[in-house]
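Appendix C. Worked example: (rape) hypothetical protein
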Amino acid sequence: MKRVKRSKNQDERIVNDPFTNLANDMIIEILMKLRPRSIARLHFASKESSSIILDKKFIQWYMTRSLTQPRYLISLHRGGYMQMQLFQSLSQDHPYNHYMVSYEMEPDVLYEFTPPVRGLICGRDFTKMIVGNPSTGQFVSLPRVKTRRQDILSVFGYDPVNDVYKVLCMTVVLKRSHMSRNGNAVPWEDIVSEEHQVITLGAKEKWRMIECEYPHRHNSGCKGIYKDGFMYYLATYQKKRSLMSFDLSSEEFNVTKLPEDQMLQQYGELVNHAGKVTIAHQAYNRNVDLWVLEDANKEVWSKNFVVPPLSIDFFGRFRDLVFMGILGTGEMIFASRSSPPFFFVCFDPKSKKVREIAIHGMGGASRHNIQIFFDHVESCMVLPKVC
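Step 2, the predicted output written as structure tokens:
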């Protein structure tokens, strides 16, 4: 397709619009074959295509197709004079099918990103937050989180009832009341999150304080996950590690008890395993324990474990594999402690098949500035300019 130069003159844009004489069905067929970044550019270049691109029906059609083509998403922060946030997307079925987009960042800002949800991703650096579409390279800034506290947890998700994206942010407020009369500090497990804020992605939205009837403290360092209209994260509730859930539609919290297991009270990360919320922990013997939530209402959990495969490097040495996550296909992802972060192993516990994935174009990357996400789907959504 011939590239169309954007004109500031609206009348001139209409004259140069290549879609003017095409039927809507033909325009949709053309757009469905394009990459999200090309679609985003046509939003500005063509009046006819713009109305279709912004239509929620078209966005959902594109999303429905993308859900059948999951991808790896690699986030890389590259410092220097021109600080850039790079995103590389690779097909999980055909890793050679990849592309990269970049986002220029403010100096001295290093965003940590939450797992992508329906093609969008959310990053936070203390109280600064951005939401973006890594498939188009478009990012918008959210209002600063209203807090001065440093212990912050943010989780990103999608409300399917109201068709909106939301961010949940919680902070621990350290007050003088947390000091006892004799001057000793209150035990950390007795301190709870006292600020719960939500913001909806959209023009001129602001952070809203909400109530939580379950006094809890989110576990620092543990990341939340999104699944079917709910956010999940690990927290301390009544001095025990528990699973917290947040309904993005009703904006209500709930708590689920964890099994009485000593290791589970200290270790484990949330993953989505076969469509179920799961706590995964790699033990000292290399095995990966999987605690699967079978019934949230009855608080029923099941447990099984997976023995990682043996992997040998170029020099014939066994690699020490570290568990990273689980794909929607059931394959488990492992990375080598000694190899660069852009090499990992996919292992199918049922068939015992192993395949190795090498990510190219990540020269100079280290484990400290790279994040890898699984089951990412491309979105053609154009974000609102003002948030």
